[in-house]
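Q: what sequence does this backbone want?
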């Protein structure tokens, strides 16, 4: 019995961690199972993961073409009121990819990466007319070299975060005495996760807009490789202001049973299940009434 199988089948506590109270139960159950069965389950996960990696790029290309079509649909009072066709087709794309065998969490990343590529393509088209395609082209070329999971992380970053990712190897160079040269660190998934935390994109500002969010990204002249970002004043974010934003957003969520059957919404919320559980526990804590001085 491997630790991977143990983690998979161990019940989770409220914070999403393994509940080790069930450890004895798991051992008792696994002791009754033939080793060939356990090995088969391990191989199944490995092979399905390999297949998703192998065919993920094709699914991504398929999704981009799908959005190329649905984005051209326009609202029509008779045949396409409120542009419901595009919304319905987007939802079916998600369900179709799941039915084809992609894990829900990976489908969410695929869709985010496809929409990100689509925004970049729109930026390139716009650039042909306004002379800005050089900067967008460099970003687009960079994105295409990355795996889907990394593209997904980039899609949730600000312009400055994307620029940091593009210069990551250059910025992390250190002298290596063995090679007698400066060597930078590879841009790993973990490194991108950290950049996303430092430069998160405010999705509320871009939701429902066609405008390319990368339009304010400026490159220095071609004879330099660095990317610079226009400095902007950053307002101080307090824990109190974050809490107020969370409360405001939660009150806007539709909690009807039909909505909570939507696997896409579930996949999105699971990205922060530990944090959400912690917030729920905080909200249930008793508070002392404030008394006047």
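A:
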């Amino acid at each position: 019995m491997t630790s991977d199988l143990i983690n998979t089948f161990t019940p989770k506590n409220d914070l999403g961690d393994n509940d080790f109270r069930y450890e004895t139960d798991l051992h008792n159950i696994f002791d009754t199972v033939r080793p060939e069965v356990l090995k088969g389950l391990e191989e199944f996960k490995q092979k399905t993961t390999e297949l998703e990696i192998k065919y993920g790029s094709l699914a991504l290309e398929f999704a981009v073409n799908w959005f190329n079509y649905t984005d051209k649909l326009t609202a029509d009072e008779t045949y396409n009121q409120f542009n419901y066709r595009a919304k319905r087709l987007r939802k079916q794309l998600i369900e179709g990819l799941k039915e084809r065998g992609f894990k829900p969490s990976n489908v969410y990343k695929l869709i985010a990466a496809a929409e990100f590529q689509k925004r970049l393509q729109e930026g390139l088209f716009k650039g042909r007319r306004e002379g800005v395609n050089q900067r967008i082209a460099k970003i687009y070329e960079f994105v295409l070299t990355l795996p889907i999971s990394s593209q997904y992380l980039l899609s949730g970053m600000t312009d400055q975060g994307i620029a940091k990712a593009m210069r990551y190897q250059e910025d992390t160079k250190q002298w290596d005495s063995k090679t007698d040269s400066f060597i930078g660190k590879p841009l790993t998934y973990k490194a991108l996760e950290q950049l996303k935390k430092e430069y998160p994109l405010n999705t509320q500002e871009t939701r429902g807009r066609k405008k390319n969010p990368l339009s304010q990204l400026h490159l220095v002249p071609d004879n330099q490789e660095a990317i610079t970002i226009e400095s902007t004043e950053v307002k101080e974010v307090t824990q109190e202001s974050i809490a107020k934003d969370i409360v405001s957003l939660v009150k806007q969520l539709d909690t009807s049973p039909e909505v909570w059957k939507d696997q896409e919404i579930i996949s999105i919320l699971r990205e922060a299940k530990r944090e959400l559980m912690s917030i729920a526990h905080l909200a249930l804590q008793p508070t002392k009434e404030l008394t006047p001085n």
